[in-house]
Amino acid sequence: MRVERKLSIDELSERLGLSRTTIYYWVRDLPIPGSGPGGGWPANAQRKGVKAMQRKFRLLREAAYKQGLEEFDDLTGDPTFRDFICLYLAEGYKRNRNTLVICNSDPAVMQVSVRWLRALTDKQLTFRIQYHADQDVEELRSFWGRMLDVPPSSIKLQRKSNSSQLKGRTWRSVHGVLSANVNDTLLRARMQAWMDRIREDWQ
Prior knowledge:
Layout: H1 9-16, H2 20-27, H3 43-75, H4 79-91, E1 92-93, E2 99-104, H5 107-120, E3 126-131, H6 137-148, E4 156-159, E5 177-183, H7 185-202
Parallel strand pairs: 3-4
Antiparallel strand pairs: 1-2, 2-5, 3-5
Helix pairs in contact: 1-2, 3-7, 4-5, 4-7
């Protein structure tokens, strides 16, 4: 069925009533076009396709970076934009070129950050609260839902790994630590341009 009828792994799984994993290990040495890594295409063609795709997205990122440099002066007409970039330099996640994440326990910090993220991207933002074991998670969700105008139930939860060890602590994040996340490769490239411009101004 794999070789003669060129059935995909999903089709074989459905017909035989077996898991995709089992089917994969049975037929992994019998590739057919469009199925599995490489899809049965010649290695050279696959490599060329990958390189072409990488080049396409590299050029898109470079264009977005250039756009960020060109629009920086206009955006800083609103002083809170510079505040946002400085906050991201200090608190933002910078290791992934496709994602922006900023987290903080201060509602004012998160309000200005989320306001700018919403203004700069049309992609959906997601939110997560890191909390301690003795905190009321529904109360935390309700608080951040009001602060950011989002449904409390949409905010994900992440219990701090050391939360059970801190019962005697004298300080804690009263509202937990909130993170705002958006997957937007081109906005991340523009953000890099804005951060670079801020750093230049500091030198």
